[in-house]
Design brief:
Helices cover about 75% and strands about 0% of the residues of chain A. Chain A is mainly α. In chain B, helix 1 crosses helix 2, helix 2 crosses helix 3 and helix 5 crosses helix 7. Chain B is globular. Classes of the chains: A mainly alpha, B alpha+beta.
């Protein structure tokens, strides 16, 4: 496969790989680092076209191994229960069933975020841009930890609903 | 919030207890739909992370895959129609919007170009001078510096035929590639600079790492992975990659082109452009993160690139005028940077940005030629005899006083711990020496000896005067020094000052 093709294929699979890694490694910075390691591995090795697995499966396999390597190098403790092979198989299976185009989701999310009140945007900025923990946000705003967690949870649910609505509207328009 | 929702929420906040972990594991294994919901929650975190770390990367959906046509056994009429159709499709393909132009500074185009804020297509573009910034749907940003010829190839690649560009690639765009005539440079979530000339393609890594794949490589693998602060040259035939010293080419980084602040951007980048391209610039020390990584002060002047780098001794890196900028701290002891700037200057302009933390000595050295004997040497200091002054001196062996001293009293109170911008213009044509402090022309004094100067072997910070003991020192920090072998005009100094200020505001 030519490098241009690798780059094109990678661009298609990358959002799924990012999603899988995020489901295995919750820390934002750690998961970003792992994604870069995956990209380096993908572009540093030849994908064997004769292999029965698809390019996507190959990349997802690398993502899975890189995330596991991360845990092994970080800690000598046993791997978290969520990273046993049965769970990972289930996650990879589920990722194949998610047909949603993650790029479209990202675009739809832009519209949804614009509709959020300033206070909510500020909360998301603290969490996702400045990478503050929930404890830090709670302390800074002098509110309880559970209130922050709940607020973030509700925000994500609201965004997911908005996002699904946007995508279904788009699909219905495409269908006309 | 249900227990499972709470477990998922706590997982993404990295706060799962062992009991919750076990419950979540069972939940995921119980039904693949539960795993799907979990992945969707993960996707939401990725989206939010990407959005808030890449607010400029607002995306639009574009065509992604190249189309392929196969025409077989068709009549000549049908063939003619097919050709027309192909041409139409080809034009449509060329006109497909690829990335948004999110900034332009002093840009002069040879080919038609979109305005700032408009989408740019796949057509080849030629930028005669200035800068243009493009933001791709996946969040990758590219700043092209003219003269350059390039094409936005796809939503994850740009082709650079000649000229120079820099990238900023967030995690959402890892794998973005810069295709040059002899290779593909795959950006693995970094900031890189690429310069294509007839001789070679030069690749330099500012942050993270990137891979290089040669055009003639037999495999699809990267032929070389480059890490932080490394740089290579690729031969024009795409056969070899050779290590190259990080050239002080002074790439203009995407960070310096703030897309939404046109005034500040114009100043900053006109400044950068002028500074780096002025052939009269003898030496320019940016005191930035690259210098910190390299452990030396790199001379960024384009005309004297590779010469006059500074050797740091005892000075430590600290925060500069902005939280993101860097500076060298001098602690009043022997901390210094040794330079040897051998180019003669018929006229001379010295510019420095610095902070003074203590004025407990009568003389506080900024930049001083070594020794006391050389007739064409010079010194720039802050004196504090009766009150603070900017002091510029050069030897005068024929006079009763051994030094021509030009004292420029500080116009207002010298604020300790604050950043200041000073310039001294030594003009042998006008026979004057002029000083500027923080955009204020302090005064112009008649030149006592009309002598061309050469900085030569010199010290930034602590100065020994060629003797064993330290006779001058500095307690403070320096974030910029520029030296021109001509007298800069007032409007140029004004622009330099405002460039520094707007750089602060931009940051």
């Amino acid at each position: 496969m030519r490098i241009e093709n690798v780059a094109r294929q990678w661009a298609l699979v990358q959002p799924s790989a990012a999603m899988l890694i995020a489901s295995m490694v919750p820390n934002i910075h750690d998961s970003q680092d792992i994604l870069q390691d995956v990209a380096e591995a993908v572009f540093s090795h030849d994908f064997d076209k004769s292999s029965p697995q698809s390019f996507r499966a190959w990349v997802m396999g690398i993502a899975r191994h890189k995330a596991l390597d991360f845990y092994r190098s970080k800690s000598r403790k046993p791997l978290p229960l969520l990273l046993d092979s049965a769970v990972l198989d289930q996650l990879v299976r589920a990722s194949n069933l998610i047909v949603a185009d993650l790029d479209r989701e990202r675009e739809a999310l832009e519209h949804c975020l614009q509709a959020l009140p300033e206070k909510s945007r500020k909360l998301l900025t603290l969490r996702y841009q400045q990478n503050h923990s929930c404890e830090e946000i709670a302390a800074e705003n002098k509110v309880g930890l559970s209130a922050i967690k709940m607020a973030l949870h509700r925000l994500r649910i609201a965004l997911r609903d908005c996002l699904d609505r946007q995508l279904s509207n788009e699909q219905s328009l495409e269908g006309t | 919030m249900s227990d499972q929702e709470k477990n998922i929420s706590d997982f993404f906040h990295d706060q799962l207890t062992p009991e919750q972990e076990k419950a979540l594991r069972d939940h995921l294994l119980a039904d693949v739909n539960n795993a799907k919901a979990f992945l969707k929650a993960a996707a939401m975190h990725v989206h939010l992370r990407n959005h808030f770390n890449n607010p400029g990367g607002k995306s639009k959906r574009f065509f992604r895959s190249p189309w392929v046509f196969r025409i077989s056994a068709i009549s000549s009429v049908a063939a003619a129609i097919a050709v027309v159709v192909l041409l139409v499709l080809w034009q449509r393909w060329l006109n497909t919007p690829i990335a948004r132009m999110t900034g332009a500074v002093a840009a002069k185009w040879i080919t038609p170009a979109p305005g700032v804020g408009a989408m740019a297509n796949r057509r080849q573009q030629e930028l005669a001078e200035g800068f243009a910034e493009f933001t791709f749907p996946n969040g990758a940003q590219v700043a092209v510096e003219g003269p350059a010829t390039f094409r936005l190839e796809s939503d994850h690649s740009i082709r650079l035929y000649s000229g120079r560009l820099t990238t900023r690639v967030p995690s959402s765009a890892v794998g973005f590639s810069v295709d040059v005539p002899s290779a593909s440079v795959v950006d693995l979530g970094t900031q890189i600079g690429v310069d294509v000339s007839d001789q070679n393609s030069h690749v330099e890594i500012f942050e993270g790492n990137a891979g290089v794949h040669l055009a003639n490589s037999p495999t699809a693998r990267m032929d070389r992975v480059l890490s932080l602060a490394s740089s290579v040259n690729i031969d024009p035939d795409g056969n070899t990659i050779t290590d190259a010293p990080p050239e002080p080419l002074a790439f203009t980084r995407v960070d310096q082109l703030e897309p939404d602040d046109t005034h500040a951007t114009e100043f900053v980048d006109n400044y950068a452009h002028r500074v780096l391209n002025d052939p009269a610039l003898i030496a320019y020390y940016a005191f930035d993160g690259r210098d910190e990584v390299l452990g030396r002060l790199t001379n960024r002047s384009k005309t004297t690139a590779g010469k006059f780098d500074g050797q740091i001794s005892g000075a430590s890196w600290t925060v500069g005028p902005t939280p993101h900028s860097r500076a060298l701290a001098f602690d009043g002891s022997a901390a210094r940077v040794l330079v040897n700037i051998t180019d003669p200057a018929p006229s001379l302009t010295l510019v420095a940005r610095f902070r003074i933390d203590a004025l407990d000595k009568p003389y506080n050295s900024l930049l001083m030629s070594d020794g006391n004997a050389r007739v064409d040497s010079c010194h720039l200091q802050i004196s504090n005899i009766l009150r603070p002054a900017l002091l510029f001196s050069n030897p005068s062996p024929d006079k009763p006083m051994p030094w021509n001293n030009y004292h420029f009293h500080w116009p207002n109170q010298l604020d300790l711990h604050s950043w200041h911008f000073v310039a001294v213009v030594y003009d042998t044509s006008a026979h004057t020496v002029t000083a500027w402090v923080d955009d204020q022309q302090v005064s112009t004094l008649p030149m006592l000896d009309v002598t061309p100067l050469t900085i030569g072997a010199a010290t930034i910070g602590s100065w020994t005067g060629g003797e064993e003991h330290t006779s001058r020192s500095l307690t403070g920090a320096i974030s910029k020094i520029g030296i021109w072998k001509r007298s800069l005009a007032p409007d140029e100094l004004h622009a330099l000052y405002f460039a520094e200020q707007s750089n602060n505001e931009t940051n």
